[in-house]
Amino acid sequence: SLSAAFQEYLRHLGLQDFPCGLGSWNKSCLSGLRSPRGVQPRQEEAVLDEETPEALLELLRDQHSPWALPQDCSPQDQLLREVAVLAPELVHGSKVYQLLKSLRMVDKGVEEIDEGVLQFQQLEELVLSANQISRITSANLPRTLKVLELCCNTVGDLEDLCSQPPPGLQHLGLGHNRLCGPSQDKFLTGDFWPNLISLDLSFNNLTDLLGLVSQLSSLQKLRILVLQGNPLSLIPTYRGFLVDSLPRLSVLDDIYVGPDERQQFRGLARQPELSRTEARVVVSVGEMKGVPDPSALQQLEVGSEAPVITCSYFVTYEF
């Protein structure tokens, strides 16, 4: 589950271990614990080795320090480690759930978004790319969520996700999943996603361009759309039909939609028959190895009766 993966992630960060945490090494922590209600500190406490928060932070940031995070660590890792030095009480126990507005759990083997995720009451961004999630129960998603990224999972059905979707979601990333059209098109409407600005459906198995566009047209705030890698993107009129059908769109497949392009494709949305009749596939073979060149025929002597052998080859593609 996501909750279990998050707890394992916290243990890996070592937020309770030196130089983080509520240890005797942290002078700022001990100053608040030394003399509660005017009680004098005990003799053994006075000789403890202490470090200032600045010195402890330096141990985290210095690349030569044995406690330094890797250079490719995420901002989330850096934030939690530094908070564990400056205010370790904020990452102790369940309080850490209130600290995060962004949670990135990439390639952690997550299979389920469980009910424990609701503890993230301030969460606005949830990135779960490259996991093993096949279904998403929307009731377990924080209502504060604005970004949900599920790229490279095994999501094949959106029904559970759309039962109680976060009302303020602005980006939904479903690229490289197992969505098949047209059964899933009905869940991509403004009734479920009234505030959606960005939608990534790339590299799925969506095939019904006309049906999908009719649903997407109800997303009044949609400005960024990614559909490349689906079978429907092979239709010759694919881009022009989308540009003319979705006049509010600013970016399609990571390419800006300009006024010249809109003018060029004007009226294409009123000719849906052009999007039904054919698809175009262009295959280029740059080089083939291990096959004799049929053009390099053996030169026979004049008058020779030796048989002539002709070789030819063909390549097939299965779709």
Concise structural overview:
The radius of gyration is 30 Å and the shape is extended. The protein has helices at 2-13, 27-33, 53-61, 75-86, 96-99, 209-216, 238-245, 259-264, and strands at 102-104, 125-127, 147-149, 171-173, 198-200, 224-226, 251-252, 255-256.
Q: Layout of helices and strands, plus pairs?
A:
Blueprint: H1 2-13, H2 27-33, H3 53-61, H4 75-86, H5 96-99, E1 102-104, E2 125-127, E3 147-149, E4 171-173, E5 198-200, H6 209-216, E6 224-226, H7 238-245, E7 251-252, E8 255-256, H8 259-264
Parallel strand pairs: 1-2, 2-3, 3-4, 4-5, 5-6, 6-7
Antiparallel strand pairs: 7-8
Helix pairs in contact: 3-4
GO cellular component, one term: cytoplasm
Protein name: LRC43 protein
Keywords: Leucine-rich repeat, Repeat
Keywords:
repeat; leucine-rich repeat; 319 residues; Leu-rich_rpt; Leucine-rich repeat, LRR (right-handed beta-alpha superhelix); LRR_dom_sf; alpha/beta; LRC43 protein; single chain
- Rounded to an integer in angstroms, the radius of gyration calculated over CA atoms is 30 Å
CATH architecture of one domain, by name, is Alpha-Beta Horseshoe
| Main pleated-sheet profile | 8 strands, mixed
Strand order of the largest sheet: 1-2-3-4-5-6-7-8
Choose one word for the global shape. Answer: extended
Q: Number of helix segments?
A: 8
Low-confidence regions? 30-48
Portion of residues in helices?
10-25%
Strand proportion, as a percent range, falls in: 5-15%
Order of helices and strands: HHHHHEEEEEHEHEEH
Number of strands: 8
The CATH class of one domain turns out to be Alpha Beta
**Overall mean pLDDT:** 81
Coarse structural class: alpha/beta
CATH superfamily of one domain: Ribonuclease Inhibitor
Looking at the structure, the CATH topology of one domain is Leucine-rich repeat, LRR (right-handed beta-alpha superhelix)
**Alpha-carbon distance between the termini?**
37 Å
Organism: Cephalopterus ornatus (Amazonian umbrellabird)
GO cellular component, one term: cytoplasm
InterPro entries: Leu-rich_rpt, LRR_dom_sf
Keywords: Leucine-rich repeat, Repeat
